[in-house]
Amino acid sequence: MNLSQRYGLSKGPVAAALLVLVFLALFLIVPVATVFYTAFVNSDGSLTFGHFMAFFNQPLMQEAFFNSLYVAGWSSLIASLIAVPLAYFTVRFEFRGALIIQTLGILPLIMPPFVGAVAMQLIFGRSGSVNLLLGEWFGINLPLMEGLNSVIFVESLHYFPFILMNLVVSLRAIDGSMEEAAFNLGSRGFRLFRRIIFPLALPGYVAGTSLVFIKVFDDLGTPLVLGATNMLAPQAYLRITQVGLEDPLGYVISVIIIAFSIAALWLSARVLKGKDYSTLQKGGGSIQKRKLGKGESVLAYSWIFLVLLLVLSPHIGVLLLSFASVWSFAPLPDGYTLAHYNAVFEDSSGMIANTLLYCGLAAGIDVILGTAIAYLLLRTRLPARHWLDWFASAALAIPGIVLAIGLLRTFRGVEIPFTGEMLTSSWILIMIAYSVRRLPYALRSCVAALQQINVSLEEAAQSMGANRWRTIKRVVVPLMVGGMLAGFVTSFITAAVELSATIMLVTRESQAPMSYGIYLYMQSPSGRGPGAALGVLAVLAVAIGTYASHLLIERTTARQRPAHAESELPELKTS
Amino acid sequence: MAHVRHIALALALSSAALAAQAGTVTVITSFPKDLTQAYKNAFEKANPGITLEILNKNTVAGIAYVRETPAGQRPDVFWASAPDAFEVLNRDKLLAKAADIANPKVPDKIGSFPINDPGGMYFGQALAGYGIMYNTRYVKANKLPNPVEWKDLLAPEWFGHVGITSPSRSGTMHLTAETILQGEGWEEGWRTLLRMSGNSSAVTERSFGVPDGVNNGQFAAGPVIDFFGLSSKFSKFPVEFVYPSETAIVPANIALIEGAKNAAEAKTFIKFTLDQAGQEVLLEPKISRLPVLPYSELKGKIPEGYPDPAEIAKRSKVHFDVDVSQSRYYLVQSLYDQTITFRLKELQQATKAIYDAERKLGDKAKSGKPAELLAEARKLTWDPLVNAKQAGDAAFLKTFSGDKRDSAVSQQITQLEGEWNGRARANYEQAVKLANQAAAL
Amino acid sequence: MKKVSVECRNISLSYGKTEVLKDLNIVIEPGEFFALLGPSGSGKSTLLRLIAGFNRQSQGTLLVDGKDVSSSPPWKRNIGMVFQSYALWPHMTVWDNVAFGLVERKLPRNEIRERTEAALALVGLSQYAKRRPNELSGGQQQRVALARTIVIEPQVLLLDEPLSNWTRNCGCRCGANCCRCNGAWASPRSSSRTIRKRR
Q: Distance between CA atoms of C198 and B239, rounded to whole angstroms?
């Protein structure tokens, strides 16, 4: 039996796998490898640890390192403090506020953090609305937006939904009988929560929290806008842009950030190993929902209200700013105007078109690649197909700024064929950066969607005479559409609000997508209003997109719900 | 499917982009969108067929970008506030000569400062002064006196109310720092800078962070370039702007980049900015910059109460020397960052400790042991780590212009920086101790 | 439709270390109705899938109509299989499900229409043509699965555990219809008879 027969290889899957591999190699593996290489190499090409020594010798760098850890750690903690009670309320209690909590789970994610940051300054800054009022009434000033606190505050408010959503899923998967058994044995209340429920929900919590930690550790846009530059990502950015692409320290920092992200991912995978706690048994239900007592009700609703207010503050702030004529050293703006929206509509149709183009293309590429990888992974026996999955998912651990640096360095001087234009100054590179970094999201969606499809559906098609390609076209893809769409939307949305890689790769104002446009606007006194207006538009677009895709997904999966109960069989006809 | 349509759109757009290349001038600038948008509109109207592309980067990043892009692919025009940046570019042979497009009506000097480069490599396009911008509401609410001179910002009651940025991030701040250093001498100038920074609440990421912070009341005052102050006033922010006597009027320059993609049409743009029409754009209230063309040429277009650069230059105590500034360009940036930007918290603490001690002791601070301790504390906090002699030493300055890729050079520099950083921190902490000791007496 | 023979010669198949089929020799004569009976795990479904082309034998030869089909992919074998789970495509109507194989064979539209109508009539589901599978009961779904397999007039018809959902009545009638082509089906029974292997 030859090799091809043993592994069930045929031209189609191999070609697909090669294409995917080339894409990943060119735009992910090689750039990241370049970054690693540069960090370890002298100008004459010899290997050296000298750059790392230089890094660790600098007190500034040590401080940046510590600060990044500090901020990421505290953000995870505060995000947990917000998310855990909310998750518990949703799952444990019969609750009319459940819908609100679900919304809470989405709202922060659709507002780009750096846009919210400006608004948060106005509301929570030392001369912001809250402190002005507190100063007047109580004579105190809360340093919510001072230094690193501002980064922690903004990031926790933005990322807590990751923990909330993962935890809710985890909690819902706990079989009610677990709890009943505990009741039976005398445990209740907080002890019950601590000893039974929380440990069983741990996988969800760990998954969410590690994700928050990594994303905060990697984030460039927010600390930059808030002026907290003594952290790793901003330092890498500043060094590369100011000292130059040759500066080795920027690469050292990049390597350290990646190492930490991978370490965090690996650690969380280890903690979760062997702890598949989804215990939902046949015929079992989730843990019981209880009714809230009067006092508990008040507590629950007030906590939710407080969190809702906090979460909405950047949105409210940006909205106010977009209509404000002048807002300075006052709790509220002096007056209101529509002029900013006018300015935006005049100037920014280009930016909006750019966002649609780059993010749409990137998301499209992601879905195609995600489907291909999912199919290769789950439906073929190609050797080393798991590597494709790992490489594609590894993009999660690569911060935007590092990928941008790697791409800039790898493709330096490379011209796009037939155009005489440099790849590094072209929008195509921006789009590629988006698609590489968003691929993990699309991939997970596609894998989940494909896993839902029973192999027998494809085998039936094949036995009916459809070859692999026809089967994919007529059976697999139509059934995956819901998941593909979800992947498309997630990729699109996260690309539309990303700034880290964008800042490094945009070379002309006409190339700017909305996120960069907002950043630019915020650089001049008369630009804050229009910048906020553009931010509002971006948030609206993202919200509408999310909602629309949610509806579409609901509709397409409705057809695939399981059949209802058996009914009488009609008479058979014989011919 | 959706992505097929997207691909078609992309192909169409890229071919359109191709067509646009021929008539495109790319300008790399640190100027804000208000200004670039106004010029874009005016220029494209006067020159249909040429499109202006703006690339927005702060001065230092802009230099690095030009240096790293291969010749033939570079942006066409460099346009920024800081003259020393142009010196750096010139020295690195990144500028192209374009003497034929200079506007003869532009005077040679402003004060004692040459407007155009004598070698014809770059041109003054606008004039800018440096001064203090302050938020009237904040100042009133905190009962601070309206600042007039730099020294006013050094007073103890200004602690925590000043906003600054760093020379490495802002050509403006670099110029302001150099102005102070040249006006007061290296050591006294650094004392001023350190004291002002000690009074600050934050070091912002871009030069715009300071006027922005003053605009929305985050801090009371800060050093800014004049047009930020003036244009903010126009936008109805509750702010005021003053030129201290220690100020410089320096040109903002524009130059043709060596190895530009579209040199011919780039020259058209540069000429436009120097001509009457281009100079008038500067006078728009949203922009509020000072023109290089003398007011006699622009009769009738000058708004009421607009500052006169010639007047201010005459009044200024500082004669700005570009060569000195350029020779110690990176040294100033490094020293500032290591002892101020990245050690801000400790510097603030030391400053606060000294003021608290002075306030507590009152008259007792003026003599005896407390005076000694406080003097020592002040020295530790506000004296620069590099003295005037070293700063003038050519060999020392050379260290900073080595090739950073060479890990030996890179290590040398980072080691020096590390030393400064460490020493500064130790000094500030020691100063806190001494001040507390004094206060306890 | 020509009647063909199916022959297994010394077929062995292992999943990793587990030997599922060992040195199997079977001959199914043209037009023969062959039933595989045995307890769970005896390899019945594995053998059916082997014939259909979804599994590969580790050793031995599989001959259909005297030709070695081992290297032939499932879509070229003209073997119809009714799956245990019916495997109806939920995003297609009953009509499209049944017509699927005909569409794949690129037959003219009238012919597709005629044959699909006939197949649906045969299993008594003509009035359900526009419904989706998830609107049908289990038994109805099974009949759709059968219709779609019969309509392509395969050389070999494989039925995997077909009796689990049929009423007695339904079973006999459908069984009668299956005699048109070769058939083999697998079904668990509590009987102690196992698959005989010819040496």
A: 101
